């Protein structure tokens, strides 16, 4: 007998009643599945995961490696070189070696790319969402992959569905199914309906599908399909993973590749044509050899690999600091951020709310207690009051408990909340006076609601006040409720939200068991109290209620949330995160401006903003209402001065980003809600919250903060700057030497020296090994001390900006001068042949080869800093550079002194004295760069003096 039901594929869930569905799936709408059922079904159906089939196949990745223009040119060089060698009856060693390098490079690129894809897949898992489900009669959160058919899942606005399901009950549920149907408008969903079997996917309004997004409302859903049995699973090609688009730098590098290849072609043409014109056809073959070498020398073969590795290491370092990169370009562009627009609640503050003050009509109370523990007292003028006997307080606390979707839980003596901390604080507050949420929810069951949204800044729930007991309608009689329900109404609506907006909708005030008309003086007093609390940095909510004799229609919030009875204010403290103050100061020092954008009250926002150093005492906060009245041009004028935006809605965020961008700012913007997605997409770096963020906001983001913390953004920015600086460093390092090689090779025929100083194979060796290894080591160079003490670099600047291009040319020329002087001397020294005959007369070439390699070692040591002398730096702060330099030097010596290697690489034995001369010449490179640093420092000091 099979103990598990078989949900797929025969059932047509949309044509089935809810009860029948639950029955088929052997579940329970209230208690959910039991642990043993879950275990059994996990075994039967497997984890709720889509098989990754959307990525590129390994073969496609491999083929892509050879679509690189630089590799194609190397292949052409190999062919020409092979033809020349075969014609001369020589073994085509260079051609084979070049082909080997091409293949190796392809394999290396392949391994790196597949590793990068795997790493991104692992990152994706890290950001996998949690799902709220009922299991064993309790509400818990489980990882999406642990869902099984029959699970009872609770969903709400912002959630991305983790499985397919049938809706059991819902409230104003709207779902965007574009991932599945392509339809971008949200679809209204319903529970109490069956549709015909042949209904198409988009019209099955009683079902929800994996991968779609809840844009509004909430629902209870029974899971009908998981993993590959979902509709999304059936079209796995739609899989969206972490995107791995090429970064701006990678794009610029491939452009650079094109330029270099074109340059190489022109050089080859010039050398061959010019040479033949001057020297005649006899010289053709040698000229061709020279130009082949030049073509190989001009291409920085090692560069693409080093860049990929650097970006990958960057993402790893960022994850260690709690910033998860979703789109690779963010790694390098983070360093260019000039403005960080941050939410307040949870990002700048701890999002651990504790109610401190309650304001009833004519009565101010302070509340004691810590955290979410339901213990504390209500003090009036410093004396504890008896909360049970205060009907106004009781009525407010009932509203706190019922107009609420969070739960309080005790785990190992610790009180925790499940859900929104703002609401958790309210459940705790009510419990402090003995009003337990679960008891009250069963006494006054919720029958409808108008859910919270950041635009409305309020929410309402409608509860039934009568219970059907033994077939008779029995009115709930209670001390706290007798006053609220004195109207003998069948339903009570509780509303909470931003005090100003809630009060606006009240025409009465609750006082001493009665609702009386509210007058202007009372309104004024409430608003003043609200301001007072807010300017202490408290987050304040207003509460109201309204009796109904019958249920208002669904979706009628605008008309129904009117003529309310005011209950009171509740003020809660959400302390700033201690580390944020320092992070704000650091970002300011780094030329990055922090801006707070919050839905909260302007005075609360200002108090916290001033405390954190985001704003100064006199600064004003712009409110959402003011924003509404501003034209985009006005806003553009405003954004330069304003650091605090309060009571804003998500669409205002979009306008603020656009205005900042128009002013040339490079904007990072945080967001957590469904409606924040457009602003996150518009921002240069969209940042979602890992803990409190909705799935939709994460999907739209470039980066996810695993700890929701502002300080993490600043840390990630620092890492971004380090990555970018290091990339620039090794580009300088690699391309400088390429220029030196090309000039040296070109100089040989010009100086009339017989033969090509460097063979293509030796050049490949230099570009890949003796340049590549130290470049990799430079890629992990730690942050320079001033990395966060200078303004950000423009993301639009060219890679050659700020002296990089000039440095490359300058150092390339120095390289060439050194090696050409050495070459000239070594040539005549070796031709003079004063030493016994067994030494090759061609060993001047090996001396040039060795000097160029060793000069790059000195370059690597010196280039670690632009301003600090090498002796001022701790050599162990990046031991990899020392290691790479040591290893490369040894490898170079092996090439000269191990006969088989010598034979393969075409080098010649050189005497120890000659080797010393090479060392001496090459160390001049190091000396030169150190002198440059001294000169730059001297210039800067002189400038500072003036
Ligand atoms: P931030 O944008 O910095 O995260 P926030 O959390 O205050 O700030 P929203 O969540 O959009 O932003 O809330 C805006 C306002 O809506 C709050 O200041 C509060 O007055 C009200 N509010 C917040 N949460 C609730 C809730 N659960 N029920 C009713 N009203 C709420």
TrEMBL record:
GO terms for molecular function: ATP binding; ATP hydrolysis activity. Residues 12-86 form the Cation-transporting P-type ATPase N-terminal domain. SUPFAM superfamilies: Calcium ATPase, transduction domain A, Calcium ATPase, transmembrane domain M, HAD-like, Metal cation-transporting ATPase, ATP-binding domain N. One of its GO terms (cellular component) is membrane. It is a multi-pass membrane protein. It is found in: Membrane. Keywords: ATP-binding, Membrane, Nucleotide-binding, Translocase, Transmembrane, Transmembrane helix. The keyword Transmembrane helix applies. The chain crosses the membrane at residues 66-83, 259-281, 287-313, 730-751, 804-827, 879-897, 909-931. The keyword Membrane applies. InterPro entries: ATPase_P-typ_cation-transptr_C, ATPase_P-typ_cation-transptr_N, ATPase_P-typ_cyto_dom_N, ATPase_P-typ_P_site, ATPase_P-typ_TM_dom_sf, ATPase_P-typ_transduc_dom_A_sf, ATPase_P-type_domA, HAD-like_sf. Belongs to the cation transport ATPase (P-type) (TC 3.A.3) family. Type IIA subfamily. This is ATPase, P-type (Transporting), HAD superfamily, subfamily IC. It comes from Chroococcidiopsis thermalis (strain PCC 7203).
């Amino acid at each position: 007998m099979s103990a598990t039901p078989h949900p797929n594929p025969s059932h047509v869930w949309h044509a089935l009643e809810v009860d029948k569905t639950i029955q088929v799936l052997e579940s329970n709408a209230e208690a959910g599945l039991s642990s043993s059922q879950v275990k059994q079904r996990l075994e039967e159906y497997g984890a709720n995961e889509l098989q990754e089939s959307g990525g590129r196949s390994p073969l496609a990745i491999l083929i892509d490696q050879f679509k690189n223009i630089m590799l194609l040119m190397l292949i052409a060089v190999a062919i020409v070189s092979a033809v020349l060698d075969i014609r001369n009856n020589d073994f085509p060693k260079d051609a084979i070696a070049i082909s080997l390098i091409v293949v190796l490079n392809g394999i290396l690129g392949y391994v790196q790319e597949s590793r990068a894809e795997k790493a991104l897949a692992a990152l994706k898992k890290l950001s996998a969402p949690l799902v709220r489900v009922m299991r064993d009669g309790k509400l818990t959160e489980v990882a999406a992959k642990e869902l099984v058919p029959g699970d009872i899942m609770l969903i709400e606005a912002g959630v991305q569905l983790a499985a397919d399901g049938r809706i059991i009950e819902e409230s104003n549920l709207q779902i965007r199914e574009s991932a599945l149907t392509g339809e971008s408008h949200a679809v209204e969903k319903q529970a109490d309906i069956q549709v015909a079997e042949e209904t198409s996917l988009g019209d099955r309004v009683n079902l929800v599908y994996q991968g779609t997004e809840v844009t509004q409302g909430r629902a209870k859903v029974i899971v009908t399909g998981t993993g590959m049995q979902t509709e999304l699973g059936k079209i796995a090609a739609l899989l969206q993973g972490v995107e791995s688009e090429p970064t701006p730098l990678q794009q610029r590098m491939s452009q650079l590749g094109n330029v270099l290849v074109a340059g190489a072609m022109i050089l080859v043409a010039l050398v061959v044509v010019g040479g033949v014109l001057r020297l005649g056809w006899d010289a053709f073959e040698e000229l061709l050899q020279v130009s082949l070498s030049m073509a190989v020398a001009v291409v920085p073969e090692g560069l693409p690999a080093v860049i990929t590795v650097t970006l990958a290491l960057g993402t790893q370092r960022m994850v260690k600091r709690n910033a998860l990169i979703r789109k690779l370009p963010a790694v390098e562009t983070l360093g260019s951020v000039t403005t960080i627009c941050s939410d307040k609640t949870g990002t700048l503050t701890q999002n651990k709310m504790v109610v401190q003050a309650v304001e009833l009509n004519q009565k101010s109370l302070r509340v004691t207690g810590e955290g979410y523990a339901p213990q504390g007292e209500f003090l009036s003028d410093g004396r504890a009051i008896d909360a049970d006997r205060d009907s106004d307080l009781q009525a407010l606390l009932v509203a706190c408990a019922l107009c609420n979707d969070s739960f309080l839980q005790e785990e190992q003596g610790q009180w925790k909340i499940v859900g929104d901390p703002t609401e958790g604080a309210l459940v705790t507050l009510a419990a402090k006076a003995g009003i337990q949420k679960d008891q009250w929810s069963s006494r006054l069951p919720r029958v409808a609601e108008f859910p919270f949204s950041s635009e409305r800044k309020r929410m309402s729930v409608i509860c039934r006040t009568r219970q059907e007991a033994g077939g008779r309608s029995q009115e709930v009689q209670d001390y706290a409720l007798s006053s609220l329900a004195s109207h003998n109404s069948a339903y009570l609506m509780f509303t909470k939200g931003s005090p100003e907006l809630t009060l606006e909708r009240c025409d009465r005030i609750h006082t001493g068991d009665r609702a009386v008309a509210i007058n202007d003086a009372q309104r004024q007093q409430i608003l003043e109290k609200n301001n007072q609390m807010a300017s202490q940095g408290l987050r304040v909510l207003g509460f109201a209620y309204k009796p109904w004799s019958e249920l208002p229609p669904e979706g009628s919030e605008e008309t129904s949330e009117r003529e309310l009875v005011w209950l009171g204010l509740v003020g809660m403290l959400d302390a700033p995160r201690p580390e944020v103050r320092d992070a704000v100061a650091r970002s300011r020092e780094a030329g990055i401006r922090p801006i707070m954008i919050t839905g909260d009250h302007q005075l609360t926002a200002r108090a916290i903003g001033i405390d954190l150093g985001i704003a100064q005492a006199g600064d004003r906060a712009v409110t959402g209402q003011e924003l509404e009245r501003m034209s985009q041009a006005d806003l553009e004028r405003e954004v330069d001065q304003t650091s605090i935006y309060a009571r804003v809605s998500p669409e205002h965020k979009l306008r603020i980003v656009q205005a900042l961008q128009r002013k040339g700012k490079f904007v990072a913007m945080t967001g957590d809600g469904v409606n924040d997605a457009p602003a996150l997409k518009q921002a240069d770096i969209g940042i979602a919250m890992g803990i409190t963020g909705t799935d939709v906001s994460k999907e739209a983001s470039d980066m996810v903060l695993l700890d929701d913390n502002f300080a993490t953004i600043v840390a990630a920015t620092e890492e971004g700057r380090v990555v970018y600086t290091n990339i620039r460093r090794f580009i300088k390092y690699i391309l400088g030497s390429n220029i030196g090689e090309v000039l040296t090779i070109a100089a040989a025929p010009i100086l009339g020296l017989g033969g090509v100083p460097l063979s293509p194979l030796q050049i490949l060796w230099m570009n890949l090994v003796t340049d590549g290894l130290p470049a990799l080591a430079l890629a992990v160079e730690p942050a320079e001390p001033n990395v966060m003490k200078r303004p950000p670099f423009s993301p639009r600047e060219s890679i050659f900006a700020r002296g990089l291009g000039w440095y490359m040319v300058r150092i390339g020329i120095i390289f060439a001068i050194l090696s050409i002087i050495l070459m000239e001397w070594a040539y005549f020294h070796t031709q003079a042949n004063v030493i016994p005959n067994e030494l090759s007369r061609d060993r001047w070439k090996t001396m040039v080869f060795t000097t160029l390699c060793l000069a790059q070692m000195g370059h690597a040591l010196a280039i670690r800093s632009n301003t600090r002398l090498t002796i001022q730096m701790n050599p162990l702060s990046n031991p990899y550079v020392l290691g790479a330099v040591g290893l490369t030097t040894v490898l170079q010596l092996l090439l000269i002194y191990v006969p088989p290697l010598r034979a393969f690489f075409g080098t010649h034995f050189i005497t120890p004295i000659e080797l010393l001369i090479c060392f001496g010449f090459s160390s001049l490179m190091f000396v030169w760069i150190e002198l440059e640093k001294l000169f730059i420092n001297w210039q800067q000091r002189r400038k500072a003096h003036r």
